[in-house]
Each structure stands twice: as structure tokens, then as C-alpha cells.
Amino acid sequence: MNNKTPPEERPDSEQPAASQHTRTLTVAGLASDEDLDVAAVALALAALDYPDRDVAIYRGHLAELCAAVASQCQDADHIDARADVLGQVISRQFGYAGDQASYNDMQNANLMQVIDRRKGLPVVLGLLYIIAARAQGWACAGLNFPGHFLIRLELGSTRRILDPFNGGVKMEIPQLRSLLKGMAGEDAELQPEYYQPVSNRDVLLRLLNNIKGRAFQSNDFVRACDILERMRMILPASPHLGYEHGMVHARLGNVPDAMAAMRVCIEHADDPKLRQLAEQAVQQLRLKMN
């Protein structure tokens, strides 16, 4: 008699680690954005690359970080006190900093590695600020600033923009303008949309875009395909991700997977040009199957 519980029926604690992490991403893809747990999803994304690590250790660290902010904020009714304590705890007490020396090291885009090494990319460090701030009930979100992830604290009608990569320093208009011109050229000017908050999904997708972009730069299409699969778990109905994933699958010779991704694009695309490109790709893929 077989007393083993089928994998799909086992409790989470008995599920293989990779299956648990994949399930976390799948559940996130079905959740509303406000119900999406960015800490849990970011840890699941990280753990997929390090399946032998105990995620509970990293959850515990995040809890410790949040508790430290709570214990040290003596004047939470003032937004500058909130901003100062976030920088004090995350940057100085826990020693997190932007990785200036090896910015493109992909350990900087993995939350577990960032916690271990205490350095990372702006978006991953920004996640730490967002997680710690929201644990206090503070309004905090990532911003749609190009090229360099920033966060925004809100208290009533008052706002502060912080740079997690540089110790949580407060960014005023001159600093923002200088940052933008340093990345986009002297002709670049600040735009209203750069101050707009982004969704939880957008933050996680921005994190994954860093990894995907570097995979493409190194012609590692297997890695790019894997990252696109994770992105589509978080945002399953995205026509653009479906098209991109389909193209990478096609390049790798995964014709059935390529066609499935293209059909998602066709089903959900509002842009007629994108839909047409996907339909043409499906026709070409059918020829390969004949």
C-alpha cells in the first residue's frame, strides 16, 4: 500500500522548496496589487535561484529590520523623522549600501544575496525601505523615476523622496535633476510622471528586468527565458511579456511553448501592431511544426 501523499496534496511544509516558491508567484499573479505581499514574492524569486537555503532565516531578518525601525522612531508623527529612521536603521545600523564597485553583479538583484552581502541594486534596497515602512503602517511606494529606483514616503499632504542606494538620502528637485541628467544627458528634464508611484507588481518586474536585461546582454537566452517565465507568473495576462517570452522560446526551439505565449499576447493585446506581430509569429511557428 502506498502511504505517500501526492505532491500536489501535501501541506506547504512538505512541498519541495521550488514548488512552494513557484506557487507563491502563481498566487501573486492572481492577487490584486494591494494584496500582493512584496516581501514574500521577492524572497520566492530569490529562493528559486538558491533552493537549498532556508527562507525562514531571511523572513526573520526582515522582521528584525521592521522591529528596529519601530523601536527607534520616537516621533512618527513627522515625516522627516520617519525618513531619518529608515535611513538610520537600514543604512547605518544594518549596514546596507548600494554596490558601487560591482553594480552589474547579479547577486545585487537577489534579495537573499543582498541580505547576506548588505549591498545591492537600488530596486532591491528600495524594497527593504518599502517593507520596513509599510510594517509601521506608513505610506511608502516606489517611484516611476527612470534609470534609478527611488521611493516616496507620504504623510497627509507631505511627501519625501528617498534614495535607498545612497543611504536613504532625501532627494530635492536639484538632486533629482542632477541624477536624471547624469543618466540621460544634459538635455533631460524632470517630467511629472517621474514622481508618480508605481504598483507592487511594477517594483517586482523592475527587479526582474535588471536580471533579464543582463541575461540578454550576455546572450544567455535560457536564463532570459526563465526570468520571463517568473515575470509572467506575476503578471500572467501581459501581452508584451507574452510576446517577448514567445520570441525567446522560439529562439531556443521551444515551439509549443512559443506558440502558447504568443496566443496569450494575441488574446490580451490592445495594440493592433503587437497583435499582428504575434499572429505572424504563430504562422511562422506553425510552419516549423509541419
Q: How big a fraction of the residues is strand?
A: 5-15%
Give the structural class: alpha+beta
Biggest sheet descriptor: 4 strands, antiparallel
Measured distance between first and last alpha carbons = 46 Å
pLDDT < 50 stretches: 1-14
- The tally of beta strands, per DSSP, is 6
Q: What's the number of structural domains?
A: 2
SSE string = HHHHEHEHEEEEHHHHHH
What is the helix fraction of residues, given as a range?
Answer: 55-70%
Strand order of the largest sheet: 3-4-5-6
The rough form would be described as globular
User: Helical stretch count?
Assistant: 12
What is the arithmetic mean of pLDDT?
93
> What is the CA-atom radius of gyration, in angstroms?
21 Å
Tell me what the structure shows:
The chain is built from 12 helices and 6 strands. With about 290 residues, it is α+β, with helices and mostly antiparallel strands. The chain folds into 2 domains: about 15-200, no CATH class; about 235-290, no CATH class. Strands 3-4-5-6 form a 4-stranded antiparallel beta sheet, with helices on one face. Strands 1-2 form a two-stranded parallel sheet. The longest helix has 18 residues, at about 55-70.
Outline of the structure:
The chain is 59% helix and 7% strand. The chain is α+β, with helices and mostly antiparallel strands and 290 residues long. The protein has two domains: 15-200, no CATH class; 237-289, no CATH class.
Q: What is the secondary structure topology, with strand pairs?
A:
Layout: H1 17-30, H2 38-49, H3 55-72, H4 79-93, E1 97-98, H5 111-117, E2 119-120, H6 122-135, E3 139-142, E4 151-155, E5 158-163, E6 169-170, H7 173-184, H8 200-217, H9 221-234, H10 239-252, H11 255-268, H12 272-289
Parallel strand pairs: 1-2
Antiparallel strand pairs: 3-4, 4-5, 5-6
Helix pairs in contact: 1-2, 1-9, 2-3, 3-4, 3-6, 4-6, 8-9, 9-10, 10-11, 10-12, 11-12
